[in-house]
């Protein structure tokens, strides 16, 4: 049964030869952009929340811990939905199209100081940061899966991943 399934799936893979350097760089730049925002958040958000936003270091640390726990559950759930999706626009494209704008908006909102009191600011920080983290997953999980959809040639897949990883690391 499993061998038949694999044979069926391999019939749907389009054989792809050489992928040009321009396409590989373009693919890597997508992850560069995503990681540029994520790296900014990772390095500056704690400082922003404590020194600009005005919440305590303990409250901000707890916020980061809660978001990581939520990630532990949201990542596989979103991965499941990505794996099961099949639209007329493709398997991954809708996630990238409909997740990019909310991701960018939420990145700006995370660095916006509302005119709320202490508890209101903390609630605002939780909502915006949790939503941003879920949006990041919503975009990044399907983006990472694109390599397998772009080629079924193992060497090209490794090359694409190398470009993607190299450019992603430049953003950090």
TrEMBL record:
Keyword Lipid metabolism recorded: no
InterPro entries in the record: MFS_2 (IPR039672), MFS_trans_sf (IPR036259)
GO molecular-function terms, A-Z: symporter activity
Transmembrane segments: 46-67, 95-117, 123-143
GO biological process: carbohydrate transport
A GO term from the CC aspect: plasma membrane
Domain of life (superkingdom): Bacteria
Keyword terms: Membrane, Sugar transport, Transmembrane, Transmembrane helix, Transport
Pfam families assigned: MFS_2 (PF13347)
Protein name from the UniProt record: Major facilitator superfamily (MFS) profile domain-containing protein
Source taxonomy: Bacteria, Bacillati, Bacillota, Bacilli, Lactobacillales
